[in-house]
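Can't attach files on this board, so I'm pasting raw text. These are the components:
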Amino acid sequence: MTASIDPALQPLAAQPSAFATLRRVIFDRPATIFALVVVILFILVAALAPLIAPYDPLAQSILDVNKPPSAAHPIGTDQFGRDILSRLVFGSRNSLIFGFVSPVLAAIIGTFLGVIAGYFGGLVDRIISRVIDLLLAFPELLLAILIAAVLGGGFWNVVAVLTVAFTPGFARVARASTLAVKQEPYIEAAVAVGLRTPMIILRHVVPNIAAPIVVLTTLWIASAIRLEASLSFLGIGTQPPNPSWGNIIRDGLNNLFGSPWPIIGAGALITLVVLAFNLLGDAVRDALDPEASR
Amino acid sequence: MTALIRAENLGKTFGATGGWFGGGSDQVRAVDGVTFDVDAGETLALVGESGCGKSTLGRLLLRLIDPTDGTIRFEGQDVTRLSSAEMRMMRQRMQIIFQDPFGSLSPRRTIGQIIGEPLEIFGLTRGRRARRDRVAELLQQVGLPPAYMDRLPRQFSGGQRQRVGIARAIAVNPAFIVADEPVSALDVSIQAQIINLMQDLQRDAGFSYLFIAHDLAVVRHIADRVAVMYLGRIVEVGPKRLIYDAPQHPYTQALLSAAPEPEVDTVSRRIILKGDVPSPSNIPPGCSFHTRCPIAQEVCRRDRPPLAQVAPGQLAACHFARPNPIPTGNAA
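---
Top answer:
Structure tokens for the assembled complex are below.
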């Protein structure tokens, strides 16, 4: 049997592809284009650091101490005569890796915990939620310092520290979103067609809570870059003489009156990149919201 | 006639097992000792005011909510005893159409994925291509162009979405479908199309409906039998003709008198019930309807009337059950 086609059926407007939506969201706002350019440049610079940097970031020169910007050194030199531009270029690698690895790891772990807590509720929820509350009670930086003080510095320790610090935020957002999504009739519909619980979570819960998680990730990338700088500034993060934006500022602070250029250069870059990721987060949020993107 | 699905003494109390705090005082008896059956191929309509437990009852039958007490026999098997894995397999035989056509379709899945999901779960089609072919066939059956398969639900109107929901329900060839107010969220102009579609599909496939509704005109059109619920209990059940023409329970009669009459020249007096529906967390003793019943006597406050046969196939739970128990005074 074939029912007659619904007479009220209107021809549907062509469905905008995900790509078209993304393109529209990006190009509708100049700020987003700016953010995207900054982020792409940041990634390119980090990836191609050895090709871009004019000098070895570790090479000291007693003759070129505390130089202001010049043709030879576009952003000047620090108190050991190292080229600041080269150090900033190489420092971007640490910032980039820290900036991405911790938030992405935290997003995966936090989403997993939050979805489990929100979907199953009960005792599981109580245990996970209390641990989240406990961790949220500490400011990220304080938590990071605490863990770093116990474990010591070093790359993976700092990654672990920041991941632990970021996870509760993701878990809380994932749990709250899951609680809302779980009430939706389409979840009951998935149960009614006999879908297994893990598949319900993967297919019907996770895609529908993804938007706030992705936005949160881009925002935490900005925070992670900032926190890596703070930790390096405090001497816990990237260890000298390796450059990172944070310890360039720290070294520069000791020598502020010798040359302000390390602080100006690294400070400007941190500000620029954090701003860009925040703007990008706003754009991603708008692009992912199915209701707003009609 | 053999019953396809039979509920016996089915009950659900919400808030029964409170956690560490509270519990006990806020128990809501949503469904209370309900016994009825649905025959193969028939449509049993379940009517009642909002909050009377009709949606809960529909979900209990499918074990979307687990009952507190009672049994459900589906094709002779007690589904209340099935493990969750066994119950999942049973879902191939019993499906649901939801009230809300907007919320019941996953917003990020194409309608092809939504309709194909039960096919995939039960392995009814081999491979992606076969599944798409079957989905196309189902879309055609519910009156949607198969070309819409790769579109997202948000591009469809309420009526079109409800067709998708129907296609999902019939995809696995179920024997029993709970239709939970399937047209009450739709425009009146669309309601008739959906009802006719549901009837056509039933005629072809021979499944049974439990049709939950509060619109008596819709029920009169689609139902074979009608069950009337009040405060978690079935107060009257019987063939459509008897329920509409000779209601024996005063609540049924009041409900029918509140429905607008299509004929202009019949002057029917409405029976206005006094007061509100009592809270299901505090159901009155005796006959639960006695607080609002115009013909209630002392016995109604004391004894709960059983659901007893009052005419062939017609059962009513009233001490004073008789055809049209409340004299309405319209000289017909």
